[in-house]
């Protein structure tokens, strides 16, 4: 793919090439901005002790995926701690900490969202390849989610362009956290640029819902991302306790306003555990 074998027009040239990054065993499936998803079609490095597992994984379409990121002209990307596998070119890594206050804020954000407190920033002119994951990698342009950006479920952040801002957003009410079985805060991504998210289900399986001054009610925390402009609460499914009990639904997650929601139609069944990359070992 020429996009990732050389620099784009008007940028500094990259004095390297990797003609077999795409071959008969792996290919790019998605690309957006500086990001591309490299999917391994089959794993040929199989040992006798894992041959049976690998065989059935291949039959079921369980594949490894890697995020390939291009940086150029001093641009930067933020990556989940421990996710970098290798990088090529004149690329430098920094902690991205701008002072004691910034460090404290990131520690608080990491503690309440399940993400690593410090996410390294990579800047320069070259390419970065992240560790393989069996999860699906979803690429999104943050600017398409409205002025306030998007809110993502805990643990989904993988990488983002340096122009994307990270912040904490609180649930609209305490009931949103206590009633919905969630935390009090979520990670919000705003500004401009592309973000990569790790998902238990592929993008093609997610349902995109556009709300215009409307209300969406979901039985369970099936929403994986939603516009920051939406009000999120947890409410009874019926007008009364008896009505909610009679419907068998009880409490539902409610999204009100104008914006969009990405919703999974099925509950997560991802349990590969140690088979995923090191980013899965988060505090």
Tell me what the structure shows.
By secondary structure, the chain is mainly β. It has helices at residues 2-5, 51-59, 100-113, 174-178, 241-247, and strands at residues 26-32, 35-40, 65-79, 84-94, 121-130, 136-141, 150-152, 157-161, 164-170, 185-191, 194-199, 207-218, 223-227, 231-236, 251-263. The strands form 2 sheets. Strands 1, 2, 3, 4, 5, 6, 8 and 11 form an 8-stranded antiparallel β-sheet that branches. The longest helix is centred in the middle third of the chain and has 14 residues, at 100-113. The chain is globular and about 55 Å long. The protein starts with a helix and ends in a 20-residue tail after the last strand. The model is unreliable at 99-104, 240-248 and 272-283 (pLDDT under 50).
């Amino acid at each position: 793919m020429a996009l990732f074998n050389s620099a784009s027009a008007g940028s500094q040239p990259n004095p390297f090439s990797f003609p077999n990054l795409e071959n008969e065993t792996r290919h790019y499936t998605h690309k957006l901005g500086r990001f591309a998803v490299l999917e391994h079609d089959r794993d040929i490095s199989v040992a006798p002790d894992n041959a049976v597992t690998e065989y059935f994984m291949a039959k079921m379409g369980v594949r490894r995926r890697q995020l390939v990121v291009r940086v150029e002209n001093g641009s930067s990307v933020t990556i989940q701690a421990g996710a970098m596998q290798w990088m090529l070119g004149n690329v430098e890594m920094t902690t991205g900490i701008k002072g004691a206050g910034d460090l404290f804020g990131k520690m608080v954000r990491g503690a309440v969202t399940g993400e690593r407190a410090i996410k390294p920033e990579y800047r320069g002119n070259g390419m970065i390849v992240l560790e393989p994951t069996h999860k699906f990698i979803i690429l999104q342009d943050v600017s398409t989610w409205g002025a306030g950006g998007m809110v993502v479920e805990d643990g989904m952040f993988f990488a983002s362009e340096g122009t994307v801002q990270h912040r904490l957003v609180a649930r609209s009410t305490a009931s949103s956290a206590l009633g919905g079985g969630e935390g009090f805060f979520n990670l919000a991504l705003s500004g401009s640029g592309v973000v990569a998210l790790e998902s238990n289900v592929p993008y093609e399986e997610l349902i995109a819902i556009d709300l215009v001054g409307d209300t969406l009610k979901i039985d369970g925390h099936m929403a994986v991302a939603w516009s920051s402009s939406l009000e999120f609460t947890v409410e009874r499914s019926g007008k009364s306790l008896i009505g909610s009990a009679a419907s068998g639904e009880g409490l539902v997650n409610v999204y009100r306003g104008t914006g969009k929601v990405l919703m999974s139609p099925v509950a997560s069944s991802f349990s590969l555990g140690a088979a995923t990359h090191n980013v899965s070992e988060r505090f």
